[in-house]
Write the structure tokens for this entry.
Amino acid sequence: MSRSTATAHHNTLLRQEIHEDGPGSILRDFQMLLGYVAEKAPLLTKTGLLPMQALAQLNARLSRPIQIDLQRPKQKSFPHINGLFLLLRTSGIAQARPEGKGRRLTLDAHLNAQWQGLTDTERYLTLIEIWLLEAELRLIGERDRRSNLSVCLALWHRLGDGTRREFPSMAEQEHWLSYSPGYLNLAMMELFGWARVDHGVPAPRNGWRVRAVEVTPLGSAFLSLLAEDIEIWLPSRSEDEDETTDGEGGMRNRLYRLLGEVFPAWKQFLDYPAWPFQPGVYRMEVALNAGLWRRFEVPGNALWEELADAILDAFGFDHDHLYVFGYTLPTGKQLDVRSYRPLFCR
């Protein structure tokens, strides 16, 4: 990239004003979803997503609804709603709380109050932080391990600055967009004002029709700046390697240093939810199959290695393999805790 282009991108960010009506519709639409959850407190599906009957209602409330022609649409059929839901859940502002055999989505009073106290600039940049550093597609049932920023960078590099790409057919649209950046991240780029998307009318039994895409000058400016720190857009790591908030090298601090120079009004952060230690004895049931299982009790202060030992001993297994525990936080984020050596090597 030439020095003049880099300077132009820098100046674009310096001149950018952020308010509820722009850039993009992210702040208005995110607030809409917040209001819906506050009003309805919907029961989530078995997979932890919004109920089907809510999807058409929410789509109609978007600043720019999309058209689809699907008999049984899913949440991912509405990429903008899917992305907003991902941000809301990852932020912790809305949390899935057990109710009977299901889970109901309700607002966390403390984090919602914090969110309402942020300025528009702080809200916009906080949502970028959540999208690029924290959000994992596993929360919405996707398995893509690439970072959200990396696939947006890939689209930008393919298109170039200010280049409009048209898709005269659904086949060409699928070839260009379905994998990289994927429809969710394309919708996010549109919501943040990073991409200009021409919507079309879908063919029968088809989903979102994208007739053309162009990365906006603002999108190019953000992507150019974020590409300067490669560590930020590496795939997320397991809990034992997590650096999101720790120290000067933490991902949040690195993102703040990049964006804080051009957005000095970014002063407040949204707190990450804290999950205090809960003492007690926990009863667990571990099964290899329907006919082979063990039930035992583990104190809350046990180490992960001690839990692994207990499971292996219960089945009479040797301690000669690596292990991984996966669990889900109330925000929906899934974490892995791994052993990088056999358990008996202490």
